[in-house]
Amino acid sequence: MSFKVIVCAKQVPDTNEIKIDPVTKTLIREGVPSILNHDDANALEEALGIKDRFPDTHITVLTMGPPQAKYMLKQCMAMGADEGILVSDRALGGSDTWATSNALAAAIEKIGSFDLIFAGRQAIDGDTAQVGPQLAEKLGIPQVTYVKEFHMEEDRKCMVVKRALEDGYEKIRIKPPCLLTAIKELNDPRHMSIYGIAGLRAKQIPLWNAKDIEVPLDTVGLEASPTNVYRSFTPRPKGKGMIINAKNDAEAVRELLGQLKEKHIL
Amino acid sequence: MAVVILNDKCKGCKLCLKACPFDAIEMVDKVVVINEKCTACNLCAASCPFGAIVKTENKEGPVDLTAYKDVWVYAEQRGGKLMNVALELLGEGKRLASEIAGTAKVCAVLVGDNIESLAKDCFEYGADQVYLIEDPLLASFTTDGYTKVIVDAVKKYKPEIVLYGATHIGRDLAPRVAARLNTGLTADCTRLDVKVSSYMDYAVHHTTLDVSTLDPTSEDTGLKQTRPAFGGNLMATIVCPRTRPQMATVRPGVMQKRERQEVVFGELVRVKSQLSEADIRTEVLEIVKSAKEMISLTDAEVVCSGGRGLGDPSGFELMKALAEKVGGVVGSSRAAVDAGWIDHSHQVGQTGTTVKPKIYFACGISGAIQHLAGMQSSDIIIAINKDPNAPIFEVADYGIVGDLYKVVPLLIEQWDA
Asked: B189 to chain A: nearest residue by CA?
């Protein structure tokens, strides 16, 4: 009796690498690499840890995105996932978290049975942390978010996890099928293995469109999403910097403290 | 709502390709085509010199949203203690309610067991009404239990707006509630507006947004929810036009709580919980408060942050010494956390904590957008960095270009002088 894990992952632009053009105040997107979202790598690593311990574990990585997201799936498979599935369709474009969870839920129903869904807490391009819980709701399964420690019982009928809180943690027992979301503290994701990379040539990545996953078109995409973008803009830098010019560091510090006292900040 | 290219006007100049943060525009046969990555953010339309890109507003169906009224605040409590963000949201909720209509109320939703005494706090911080949902099964937070009772209450009383703190609990609960109610939810908001005129006022003073397309006399009272996106590189204002309630999580430390008013009474509404044990599918075995000192970055008056420029983990000893001297707490950039030099709980920024202390020291922090997003509303920002071109100097009130290992010890030495 194998244990089936679905890992939900997203290919994201590395937002750390994005800079704002100082003149036009627009984003400079050129040269920004697309990467496997950090928290999702932690989710995959934990699934791979289950597979290390129970070799009959089967890991499917599911993603929704543009066609090039298949490269991210290949990376996941080279790390050790058994298969990758890409859901891609223009009809799904512009989906907010509600609509995205509808599409993912439909894809998971097509995949069939599962014991555990592991996702990252949030993606670095949107930072909403909403798709995980909303997917769990659509599938009618319980969830634990912010998982920082994971333990599976020997019989695989029960898991005990630690859920991070701002000032501590909760220890929670949960039974499969369920959905967990991973944070950075959970583990250190492994690298791709040579063996895994070599094995990629023999593997195909299925590409499913909206029709394949049989999702009602009035529940996905931009038009169906309950939230819409009203306006967007780049933040305005505070921009009133004053560099303290002084002969030496000691002078500079004295000048700084003088300024702070003068303005009654100290 | 969608962005449409007018093919006859498009000259193929590719300016919009550069303007698009989502890589959602491609060139096909010398004209541009919008692909599925489009989120209708509209930045391309602003970039087009030929007026070839237009945004089509949704045709509003005859959806009756008028049955929904009042602003609800999920008054998060842990172990019988109200979270600070709940009080902040009551203050903000009061402001929003007054923008909606004179009759709209701000209501606190208290969920737990034996927590009636907290209702008084809610009233004193601005709640007109408190919905109290008590049940022994709600003694500690569970996603299943709390989702069910809140969804039941929303269906019964129909609030127009529901706000949650963007805490680890709020961000677990709110998406689940929104999905069950099939309504929209906006995460981690830093600004909320109801009236177009107040949104414009905000936009003019704090953003680069061109407000000429907005009508200050508009009767639109939909909630305009502004949040950082794209790692803080972009701000987006989100609306939820067709479904109710409109729901948002709001970052702690961003909104203002009101002055406590003694002896204020409001209406207490007891809501009967319909919960049974079978509804709750997780078991909370224990709740552990972290033994390490509780770093309340949010409440700190002075924050002393270090970044990659510290060079190694020992640099945080210097930060600690500075913090002790000036009565502050230690913060850090994401780079220092990623390097493993300090725990994530110290991280300031888009994916860490938002702070607005009286004084923010940024030592060896270059000033990545994601960091700026979490600290740029500090009263005074003091940056110390070797690199005179570091972006942190653009937001700093005072900057010292120099070696932090020389400057900071001098600062500690001279502080009381």
From this structure: A128
